[in-house]
Write a structure and sequence with these properties.
Shape: globular
Mean pLDDT: 95
Low-confidence stretches: 1-5
Order of helices and strands: EHEHEHHEHEHEHEHEEEHH
CATH superfamily: Metal-dependent hydrolases
CATH class: Alpha Beta
CATH topology: TIM Barrel
Bound molecules: manganese (II) ion
Number of helices: 10
Helix content: 40-55%
Distance between the termini: 33 Å
CATH architecture: Alpha-Beta Barrel
Strand order of the largest sheet: 1-2-3-4-5-6-7-8
Length: 255
């Protein structure tokens, strides 16, 4: 193996617990040299996910309260607070202002603000943040509620404007990039506007499909090659870059 091929693959946002027979998938990720952040959508899912990930050093679990579920699950915020002291990673959290979820947007704002403040007070947390049709709101709340020396933020599937991305970059945010983002000229322009030291890769599996099956974390190789093509570098260099970015991100904060 050449020096350039070294470095793990990185899937920094997926939902392992939403696949059938997901325990096998935990093992497949670990054996396939994929460093994974698997996010949960409700705090109730936390204990089981922690248990499934325990044998695998390369699999991190995020404590989440998904904005698309906040309408029904905002009462679980207290459970979120109960588990937060034991969570290094937090996600999926954020805001979603698309038509289906807009009716809960006020509640989402309250829940997201509360979570950001709790994480900032606790310190040492790495957050995976959803921002569909709400990029400017998300960036504004990060600006207002987060102490960047205590919390690190990864914007997942970011689809805001290039200027929103620039503001987020200035606040220290990272960006996890998936293959759907690289499908459109707008998405590629956004990705190219972000300094490469802040780029990570993700699948958002199982929510993205490849042909007739859901994407799986080992498919992050495809994202890596699309990202290499978009940024005009080799796959090997991109792989090393993303592995190095992951290391940098995770060593910023004291635990
Ligand atoms: Mn997701």
């Amino acid at each position: 193996m050449s020096a350039f091929q070294s470095g793990e693959l990185v899937d920094y946002h997926c939902h392992l617990d939403l696949y059938p027979e997901c325990e096998k998938l935990f093992a497949t990720c670990a054996e396939g040299n994929v460093s994974v952040l698997t996010v949960t959508t409700t705090p109730k899912a936390w204990p089981r996910n922690v248990e499934m990930a325990a044998p695998w050093r390369s699999i991190r679990v995020g404590l989440g309260l998904h904005p698309q579920l906040v309408a029904d699950r905002s009462v679980e915020l207290s459970l979120f607070e109960t588990y937060l002291p034991e969570a290094r990673f937090v996600g999926e959290i954020g805001l979603d202002a698309s038509p289906r979820f807009y009716r809960s947007f006020d509640t989402q704002l309250k829940v997201f603000e509360r979570i950001l403040k709790l994480c900032s007070e606790a310190g040492g947390k790495i957050l995976s943040v959803h921002s569909v049709r709400a990029a400017a709101h998300v960036v504004r709340l990060i600006e207002r509620c987060v102490d960047p020396t205590r919390v690190a933020i990864v914007l997942h599937w970011f689809s805001g404007s290039n200027s929103d991305a620039k503001r987020a970059f200035d606040l220290g945010c990272y960006f996890s990039i998936n293959c759907s983002m690289l499908d459109s000229p707008k998405g590629r322009s956004l990705v190219n506007s972000i300094p490469t030291t802040r780029l990570l890769t993700e699948t958002d599996g199982p929510f993205i499909r490849i042909g007739d099956r859901p994407i799986v974390p080992t498919d992050v190789k495809l994202t890596l090659s699309d990202l290499a093509e978009t940024t005009g570098t080799s796959i090997q260099e991109t792989r090393s870059l993303v592995a190095a970015n992951l290391q940098a991100l995770e060593s910023i904060l004291p635990r």
